[in-house]
Write a structure and sequence with these properties.
With 262 residues, the protein is an alpha/beta fold. It has a domain at 3-53 and 63-173. The model has no long low-confidence stretch (mean pLDDT 79). Helix 1 (3-14) crosses helix 5 and helix 3 packs across helix 4. 30% of the residues lie in helices and 19% in strands.
Amino acid sequence: MDHAVALVQAYLQLNGYFTSAEYPIIAGTARNGFRTLTDIDILAFRFPSGQPMARPGRKGPAGLDVSGLDPGLGIPDESIDMIIGEVKEGRVGINTGIRDPEVLKTVVSRFGEVADAGNVVQHLLQNGMAEIPPSFSVRLIAFGSFPPGSAVPPCRIISLGHVLAFLQSYVRKHWHMLRHLQFKDPAFGFLMTLEKARRGGAGRRGQEGVEIVTADDVPSMPNGRRRGEAALAASNAEPSAPRVAVQRSTLPRVRPPRPRGK
């Protein structure tokens, strides 16, 4: 998966979307073959409600907190939302394939049978979004690092810098919970590693995070700690029970009498 697509996918998932990355659009050929017309960088769906986040002390299962929605995403309140996303690492742009009405009809059909798909697609191309009765919406969003280099059709543009800032803010806000979890998502997992490294700072490796160990250094303790660290840990440990001194008696020892011979 493209790095920028992985970043956008994590961003949309934390805003409550189910995502499908690099979704292929396929067409048949004359000789019973198939070819790929284009692929949608990111296809995302979101329902108006979701599960609450996990709370300390509650044993019931719950998902990640997706209540802190990004206002810049413009999520509809009362409709099921579909996002057709185009992702570029450089300048924002929308490929010609995604502007093809037949391609968009195929994508919109993921909602099911749409009564007037042609009218919906036309409205989408003219306005960057369209409503599908009774309670569906489909939107075109372009992601990129830099402003468009050429004209783009009507759409919402979100910079990758904005996406990154949202993800970093989320990780720092929920670090107390996220640090206990393991993530297989490449983009979000890498962000967690960066945050862990940032919070770790220099640690025991000096203020600049670098240390050179020589043979003349104080040897380590058996548990891997330095002597100073072991002493600090011992001082922070709970005090042990005091020893009771046993005082010896000062009275003279009495020896038993020796038996006399007969």
